[in-house]
Design a protein that fits this description.
Largest sheet: 9 strands, mixed
Bound molecules: adenosine-5'-diphosphate, magnesium ion, zinc ion
Number of helices: 15
Strand order of the largest sheet: 2-6-7-10-1-11-12-13-14
Distance between the termini: 70 Å
Structural class: alpha+beta
Number of domains: 3
Length: 501
């Protein structure tokens, strides 16, 4: 009998924290603004002997905020540790991290294994993936800990260049338990963590800039078994697409190994996006390889209940809660609500348009999800930089709702508003876009078109039904698309019917 396999996935997510200064020194954390390599550095973040680290208070606040948002408990007593390894991007020869006592642990996040659309599976993977049952699942968050980012290496032909501007930037690591059983759930988990980090304002979520990176730990096992088999770890996945493709590839690679009677070796893998394969980087180190020991230069963090509660009080409404509220208050479908709450700026914009508009929330959603999104994508504009004020957008939507203008004229006006600004009523007037709703005027036009085209009328009535669009096209041409389409259609059907012999 052929075994069916299921994946077991645990994710590690690294996100830089949006603080002013680095984790243990006064250098700017905004290394992207440094004019040149190695200008945003000091003795501490370049690991010079004798330089002493000092904990960034803001970073601990942001880390605790993330921990609380992920339903973790905060360790009132937590400690820093040295994780020893040598690499040219790590000037001290160790990374300051947290090991035995992280700032936060034992949280959870609920994910749905099937909600977000999966990008198409890459070539060579036509075998159906074991995706599990479609129930919501709770993924336990094992720990959230503070550490520091490394420098950046640039590999040239015969040498490598190192830029320490990023070295020591506060980094948060969020580690899940191996509770994820489908690639969809892994994608949903990663998507939700990113959204939470953005809601909290602790990370921009700009994956192209590398401020948020995923690592996927993957093993497979026969369905029905509860063993945890040897896993591999895929490092530095810099996009959702990479997370999905790499996970799918790795799951299939491991299944093939077991089916061929071989075993999976525990190792660290890289993802070659161009070739669409995982590549072996090194055999996986064990914790003891890092010779962790308590960081002697930093005292433990002692957090009071009052401090923790003050952080808790800063928690904003998070995506899950906002989605539930959008469904109940605005009568939106879960998927429409999820779309709007996927981005805090979008959710806020939506609420401000709805507040000013007489149209239904559903109508407002359609305009945002359709025309506005198209504009933002095409122009590469971030919704945060949108100059169109929500009240004006609401005014435009209402003009379409009350049929002052037609839907296509509405799009024209919106484009004008988005690119040049202005007043919707004024634009409608200038461009002469007002909708023709006068029934007798439309009737007159329909009659004229039918009278002028007896041949087409006969052909239509003889069965060439595709001509109906042609008649409607004549109406659109004569009115520059301004006739109320429903009225025109109704009168046209009636007129053709009357001329049937
Ligand atoms: P470490 O990185 O210190 O070795 P762990 O091995 O406990 O820590 O876990 C690292 C990550 O690997 C976690 O996200 C965990 O959920 C995941 N993981 C652990 N065991 C498995 C397994 N058998 N299959 C898939 N993922 C696993
Ligand atoms: Mg790891
Ligand atoms: Zn520094």
């Amino acid at each position: 009998m052929k075994l069916t396999y299921e994946p077991v996935i645990g994710l590690e997510i690294h996100g830089e924290l949006l603080t002013n200064s680095k984790m243990f020194c006064g250098c700017s954390a905004d290394y992207g603004s440094a004019p040149e390599p190695n200008t945003n550095i000091c003795p501490t973040c370049t690991g010079l002997p004798g330089a002493m680290p000092v904990v960034n208070k803001k970073a601990t606040e942001l880390a605790a905020l993330v921990g609380l948002a992920l339903n973790c408990s905060i360790n009132k007593h937590n400690t820093f540790a040295r994780k020893n390894y040598y690499y040219p991007d790590l000037p001290k020869g160790y990374q300051i991290s947290q090991y035995e006592l992280p700032i936060a642990e034992k949280g959870w996040l609920d994910v749905s294994p099937s909600s977000p659309a999966l990008p198409p599976v890459g070539e060579g993977s036509n075998s159906p993936l074991p995706m599990g049952e479609g129930l919501g699942v709770r993924v336990r968050v094992r720990r959230v800990h503070i550490e520091e980012d490394t420098a950046k290496l640039a590999h040239e032909k015969n040498y490598a260049l190192v830029d320490f501007n990023r070295a020591g930037v506060p980094l948060l690591e969020i580690v899940s338990e191996p509770d994820i059983r489908t690639v969809e759930a892994a994608l949903d988990y990663a998507t939700k963590v990113r959204a939470i980090l953005r809601y909290l304002g602790v990370n921009s979520g700009d994956m192209e800039k590398g401020v948020l990176r995923f690592e996927a730990n993957i093993s497979v096992r026969p369905v029905g078994s509860d063993e945890f088999r040897t896993r591999t770890e895929i490092k530095n996945l810099n996009s959702f697409r990479a997370l999905v493709r790499a996970s799918q590839y790795e799951i299939e690679r491991q299944i093939k190994l077991y089916e061929a009677g071989e075993t999976v070796i525990q190792e660290t893998l890289g993802w070659d996006d161009a070739r669409g394969v995982t590549t072996s980087q090194r055999s996986k180190e064990e914790a003891h390889d890092y010779r962790y020991f308590p960081e002697p230069d930093l005292p433990p963090l002692q957090l009071s209940d009052a401090w923790i509660e003050s952080i808790r009080s800063q928690l904003p409404e998070l995506p899950e809660a906002k989605t539930a509220r959008f469904i109940s208050d605005f009568g939106l479908t879960p998927s429409d609500a999820r779309f709007l709450t996927s981005d805090l700026a979008l959710a806020d914009y939506f609420e401000r348009v709805v507040a000013k508009s007489k149209s239904s929330a559903k109508t407002v959603h359609s305009w945002l999800a359709g025309e506005l999104m198209r504009y933002l994508n095409d122009s590469g504009t971030d919704i945060k930089d949108l100059t169109l004020d929500p009240a004006t957008f609401a005014q435009l939507i209402d003009m379409v709702t009350d049929k002052t203008i037609g839907a296509s004229a509405g799009k024209t006006v919106l484009t004008e508003l988005l690119t040049k600004g202005g007043d919707p009523a004024q634009i409608v007037k200038e461009k002469n876009l007002a909708q023709l709703t006068d029934v007798s005027a439309i009737q007159e036009l329909v009659t004229k078109i039918l009278d002028d085209n007896p041949k087409e009328v006969d052909e239509y009535n003889a069965g060439k039904e595709t001509l109906f669009q042609w008649f409607m096209g004549q109406v659109a041409r004569a009115t520059k698309g301004k006739a109320d389409p429903n009225v025109a259609k109704e009168l046209m059907v009636k007129g053709l019917e009357e001329r049937r012999k």
